[in-house]
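User:
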Amino acid sequence: MIVRHGKGFRLYCKGASESVLGDCDTVLQADGESVEPMSSQQRLEISDAIDAMAGRGLRTLLLACRDFDHDEQWDEDLPAPDDHLSFVAVVGIKVCHSLTHSLFCFLY
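Assistant: Predicted structure:
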């Protein structure tokens, strides 16, 4: 999903936790604006959180974003850029028999 953000655009994406985490090199800070480089310790903590949720039977998704000055930095006929992402959150989902009863567990 792409939304206007400030004077530019922000691309949001979600996907398989381990895969999207590999595309993240920064972490979005609590102010929702600034990003900091992802340390190896942060990467390990996020990976441990993913493993812990999976160990409890939860399916995980990782949420990430990337800011652009304008929307012409990629070709619309090609997939959206999936590198240099900023980690936002990892989500654990407990899937029940009915989708309306699935529980979302936010953990990191």
